[in-house]
Write a structure and sequence with these properties.
Helix content is 56%, strand content 13%. With 455 residues, it is α/β, with parallel strands linked by helices. The chain has a six-stranded parallel beta sheet with strand order 7-6-5-8-9-10, with helices on both faces. Strands 2-3-1-4 form a four-stranded antiparallel beta sheet, sandwiched between helices. A hairpin with a 3-residue loop joins strand 2 and strand 3. Helix 5 packs antiparallel against helix 13 and helix 11 packs across helix 12. The protein is elongated.
Length: 455
């Protein structure tokens, strides 16, 4: 079996193509069923975001699996394969696993270290599992990927440092104010970056937003998004007196906030005034730096913070790379244990048959047993079998990842006389094996930690 990922992202495909090839939440489950029934595809998960579309499949034939993944995309979106194939990447087995781990850790994102992708991967994997199109391999792979992503978030600082101007402004504000709760934000102008900064401040706890703009209609449109209030430009001075944080992003050719206006606004106030000038040319007179209890930062200040934080994220990315390689080793060790699954299954089935035959003989010899007595006997005899199996099964799983695994498995089969059971397993029809691979949850004891017989 082969793990294959076929897809594109913001690095390999233009936005015009990414816009055409995406799945909404409602479209994803039906699409997964169609992908699952393509030739040679035994399990599948589709990751669909604004910046990437990736098909993760388990296939019995690597070239066939990747071809039918591409064919699926062609049929789903009605776009000739030749129009998008040059934008695709295809990764198999170890490379596919490393790619998924890199994605969930935020190293493959447009903004390195962003955490949103982890939630998207987790959600799309859940949709696939609930749709019944995943099995042992992809269930375990995505569980490990999500666990690694969470570990990276908690044990490194790759996502802790702002790498956008708007977030950098919020980061500065946190140093000045212990909390944004109860703070008033004055947004001067309706520029996109200024509005985004105000949005982040609002989401961080600021409970009042005043929007001042030369066009009152535009101010009202923006203020509505924050449940705030719109004011005309003539009300700038009184608005400054009410504000704790000012975000300015007009397109004015000269400064619109003079030193004298700020001096008037801060008279008799106790709390500091935080000014963020995102405009180019600058909106706020640099002389304001000289005023007490006033903190002014312009676009260059914020950009410097962003660049420093990008450097910090890149340093953390090296740590994440080490964590990914460690996880790759653990996943490879787990893959090695899959060779022991048929042997474990054979021993459990043989034990189950022996137990069932023994119970039938007991019931024939003791026909007067009540149903309660039968249940008690069945429970305790199963417990005996399970305890006898526990250590041998644990040992063979340990041996299955050693260089001597082939000899160990052969000896294990001989000791427990499992040749007949394994031969029967190999004779199962192909569709039965295919169905087994695509169970929606990992029920096999090799993956649940169980070693005995189910009640």
């Amino acid at each position: 079996m082969h793990i294959i990922v076929t897809g594109f992202n913001h690095k390999t495909a233009p936005v015009e193509l990414r816009e055409q090839m995406t799945f909404t939440g409602e479209e994803l489950a039906p699409a997964l069923h169609r992908l699952r029934h393509m030739k040679s595809i035994l399990e599948c998960v589709v990751i669909s975001t604004c910046n990437r579309l990736e098909l993760y499949v388990i296939s019995d034939q690597p070239h066939t699996g990747s071809y039918y993944s591409k064919s699926f995309l062609e049929k789903e979106f009605g776009i000739p394969m030749g129009d998008f194939v040059d934008h695709l990447y295809v990764k198999r087995d170890e490379q596919a696993v490393r790619h998924l781990f890199t994605v969930t850790c935020g190293l493959d994102s447009m903004v390195v270290g962003e955490t949103q992708i982890l939630g998207q991967v987790k959600n799309d994997a859940r949709v696939a599992q609930e749709a019944g199109v995943t099995g042992t391999l992809l269930n375990h792979l995505f569980k490990e990927a999500v666990t690694l992503g969470k570990k990276v978030q908690s044990e490194t600082e790759i996502g802790q440092n702002a790498v956008s101007v708007s977030y950098a402004a919020v980061q500065l504000g946190r140093k000045l104010f212990s909390t944004f709760t109860g703070k008033t934000v004055l947004l001067l102008g309706a520029g996109e970056t200024g509005e985004l900064t105000a949005k982040h401040l609002f989401e961080a706890g600021a409970n009042r937003v005043i929007v001042v703009n030369r066009t009152l209609e535009k101010a009202e449109e923006v203020a509505c998004r924050f449940r705030g209030e719109a004011r005309s430009f003539t009300e700038l001075i009184p608005s400054l007196r009410e504000a704790d944080i000012v975000v300015s992003s007009t397109g004015a050719p000269t400064a619109v906030i003079e030193k004298a206006a700020v001096q008037s606004a801060i008279a008799k106030r106790i709390h500091p005034l935080f000014l963020i000038d995102i405009a180019v040319p600058r909106d706020i007179d640099p002389a304001i730096h000289d005023l007490d209890n006033v903190y002014l930062f312009d676009i260059d200040d914020l950009q410097g913070i962003v660049e420093a934080n990008i450097d910090l994220r890149e340093q953390e990315a090296d740590k994440v790379g080490v964590m990914i390689e460690e996880q790759m080793i653990r996943f490879d060790e787990w893959l090695q244990t899959l060779g022991v699954v048929p042997v474990i299954t054979a021993l459990r089935e043989k034990a189950l048959d022996i137990h069932e035959e023994t119970m039938l003989r007991i019931e024939r010899k003791l026909p007067d047993l009540t149903e309660r007595e039968k249940r008690i006997l069945r429970k305790h005899t199963k417990s005996i079998v399970n305890q006898l199996l526990r250590d041998p099964l644990s040992r063979i799983k340990e041996l299955s990842v050693t260089p001597e695994k082939e000899q160990a498995l052969e000896l294990f089969v001989q000791i427990f006389a499992l040749e007949e059971e394994l031969a029967t397993e190999k004779e199962k029809p192909e569709e039965s094996v295919r169905s087994e691979s695509c169970r929606p949850s990992m029920l096999h004891p090799a993956f649940t930690g169980e070693t005995g017989i189910r009640s």
